[in-house]
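FIELD: query
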Amino acid sequence: MVTESSKSGAAFVFVEDLSKRFGSEWALARASFTLERGQLALLTGNNGSGKTTLIRCLSTALVPDYGRATVSGIDIVSGRDAVRGVVASLSQPPGFYGGLSARENLVLANAVLKLGREDAIDAVLQRVGLGAKQNVPLDAFSSGMKQRFALARLSLLKRDLILLDEPETHLDAAGLKLLRELVAEWKARGAAIVCATHAGDRFHGLGDLEVVLVGGRPTHAGAVA
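FIELD: result
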């Protein structure tokens, strides 16, 4: 959804004709939408539809071959270092140091990224239900617990744009409830969220925009019905 106001780059997230090719194949072709702070955009579509490619372009992990996108007015290519200071991503599989405990991973992230949020570490681990497991190495965690840790890390980063690639993976019913609660909390504090998912119904009542991708091409971009 591209509006006249978004063409000037006024939207917090502005995506226009964003495209990425691997060899001769276009994994993503002419994706366009805008997103404001406090809004959630759902990227839906089958496997191979371009959802992850779009997420990775916005995170600056991939450089698009055509089109453009900005985050808070910063171009994702020419200003990639600045964009990385605004964005937090949850990918599959989520990254961490498996030999370190949950708490040690967050202490390290806080120090390396100079977040100044060491006092919040215990609270975010408690929030995702890992307070009693905070000193256990992540290699000993189940897949669902690792996903909960990834959510804790996003909360610690407290970034303005949160990119989620199938965040519901490995979560049980309680974990899915936690995910919905966190998304609502992130929206309430003004973060913009882009979420690639196969199960958009799990975010019922939270999504503001849906971008439907088929074969890398958007077939719909507009308000969630």
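FIELD: remark
The beta strands are 13-22, 25-35, 40-44, 66-71, 74-75, 87-90, 161-165, 192-197, 209-214, 217-223.
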